[in-house]
NADH-quinone oxidoreductase subunit F (Candidatus Manganitrophus noduliformans), 435 residues
Amino acid sequence: MPKYELVLLKNMAQPGYTGALDEYRKTGGYTAFEKVLKGIPPSEVIELVKKSGLRGRGGAGFPTGMKWSFIPKDHPGPKYLCCNADESEPGTYKDRQLIENDPHQMLEGIGIACYAIGSHHAYVYIRGEFDLGAEIIQRAIDEAYEAKLFGKNIFGTGFDLDVVLHRGAGAYICGEETALLESIEGKRGKPRTKPPFPATHGLYQKPTVVNNVETLANIPYIINRGPEWFASLGTPKSAGMRVFCVSGHVNRPGNYEVPMGITMREMIYEHAGGMRGGKQLKAIIPGGASAPFLTQEHLDVKMDFESIAQAGSMLGSGAVTVMDEDTCMIWAAMNLMEFFHHESCGKCTPCREGSAWLLKILQRIEYGQGRMEDLDLLVSLSKRIEGRTVCAFGDAEIAPVLSTLKHFRQEYETHIQERRCPFRPNVVLAMAGGH
Ligand SMILES: Cc1cc2nc3c(=O)[nH]c(=O)nc-3n(C[C@H](O)[C@H](O)[C@H](O)COP(=O)(O)O)c2cc1C
Ligand code: SF4
């Protein structure tokens, strides 16, 4: 029995629920879409979403109603809505669960969002590796067309909407909203320089909203249960429930839907069942690979946008990775840097070249070849990347380096002084043989 009333994970928690359209409709599905189309003007829908306090669940936490209000009302040409289902941030797997088990929540949210911003064309951009998810979404879209929930003259109101599934091809960077737009347009997935922003110059240079799967899935419930209900969950500035993906050295890794603002201690020790093997907790990444590491000292920090930022990290994609006392922090940072180096799109020099250098230095420290000067070098290199790149990926790739140096500097020094990794002696031996 979950401690809090589930919202997005509620239907799928019922035994036998398949997420098919008829089952979703039995739970009240598509009544919010009908309600807005038949009786709430678009500007009022935007006001309701603003009032709810909903903030984007894709990473940056931007207020959703405000984002919608940036779309020019008098624009003559097409406007677009893109649902970001690229979910490639390491440790993040909430959108996948929402897509695979209850896809119509997100599709209904897409319908309402399109009506609110005056768009008749929506794309769902799904991560290339999500074969099953793509199949399920396509089936759900087909069901919605057959039931005349998408297409022409929906609910007899004269509102038309087309929804198209677009599959990615495996690049993490295509989750960044402007790279996603480039990719849909058939170009290489590289982020655009901003401004201009997608609200005015998005897909095909037309006004566009990009929203995350979880953000959109919340919309029908805000309409049906009211913005006050949503705002009463969570904290005043971080409203609502959030699906956190807990992974790493815990007893029960998984997705947990809880109100924002519970402590990391509650998340790890109550919901995720505590540390595996009764080990000590050493480090936590609270919001996906792009979020700086926190430590045991931060266990009582609340999991809302402001509190996590105040503690020096970010809530990001909601992926909580927990590491125990046996984890080498240099190895952890190196592992993430391998990912960032591999996924850098190469457009800007500081990110492309910097990630290669950071990885090289971390590798030599981990494998017993490090020098004390490397620690300053890691910092100065990171500072030359920070704020000097086209997209936020540049700032993300330095987060593991700077935060492990901040909280675990002694561990770096021990590696250098002892010329080995104290946590992974066998790996050092293997590497030593190769040098
Ligand atoms: C490198 C990078 C990767 C991103 N990946 C994703 C992703 O996989 N899914 C997602 O929803 N947002 C991702 N984002 C955030 C998007 O750019 C965008 O802010 C988000 O989709 C907006 O939706 P929201 O307002 O509903 O959060 C990423 C951002 C960056 C910089
Ligand atoms: S910061 Fe990195 S990922 Fe982003 S545009 Fe520049 S090179 Fe590409």
